[in-house]
Amino acid sequence: MNVLRLAPRCALLLALLGGAGAAPALQLTDDRGVTVTLAQAPQRIVSLLPSLTETVCELSQCQRLVGVDRYSNFPDSVQKLAQVGGGLDPNIEAIVALKPDVVLMATSSRAGERLQALGIRVVALEPRSHADVQRVMLKLGQLLEVRDAARIWRAIDAGVSAAAQSLPASVRGTRVYFEVNQGPYAAGESSFIGETLTRLGVKNIVPAKLGPFPKLNPEYIVRANPDLIMIGQRSADGLQTRPGWQGIRALREQRVCIFLTEEANVLVRPGPRMAEGARLMAKCLMDKAPALAATRASGVALPLSREEGAVRALGRPGGTDVLPKAGGGKP
Q1: Report field, pTM of the whole predicted structure over 0.70
Q2: In this structure, are strands 102-105 and 45-47 parallel, antiparallel, or unpaired?
């Protein structure tokens, strides 16, 4: 009888001891400040941001992706995955049908609360600066339980430094306008693109205080009179016909780098290909930048008192890697 009475207690004790040895839950705090808890590293992932898609693959975990947004197109293997619409307004039903363990998205996506209400875990990560890129890579390494995720950032950092070292002193100080999309939306000094330009030794005409990706009044660019313009192919149509732009030095002297669509995708995505982006910018500077002495002699500074009035809206439009075209779309 005593043995029979002890049996349930022994079973309970064994269960408790077994539980004590179980692996702890995986916890991660995302860019919303929300702590996401998973029983284990996710095996089925939907990514709604191209830079996050590329980072997952750079961590050698592409096989965990089951769906992506329509703009995630690198590496080539992700083009075979189910597409679930745009990053800002994805197809919720299509995501649910994929039964993901977690959905990766930008903090500005409107889908997060709806997905969470349906019981789907969401991790929102949105890199804007070099420090953000490094942090997001480490976060994804933690989420996917990949050791040494920092190696990706080390490779990026080394690649950007190499691109900077490849440039002659004559291009230093070139005043650059980088247009990320029609609007016009510019890459400011505080953006990851602006930080790369700074490391290349050139001067961004859009100061950090205007935000990472401000929407500018076109007159601002005319008055700033950049020495060189960097712009994607989709935004370059009609550049010469913009009011007042015929007088901009960069256009007068044909110092404009127009990046093909795939090159533009590399440049505007804060992810593993940032070193490649730095090399594209460096090549542009080598090909198009004027001599430093000429730049200093004819550069026109924008009066500080008028900077704020020249900006229509601050912040990052749409909150996505591939920034929206006029009308809210994305390349």
Answers
A1: yes
A2: parallel
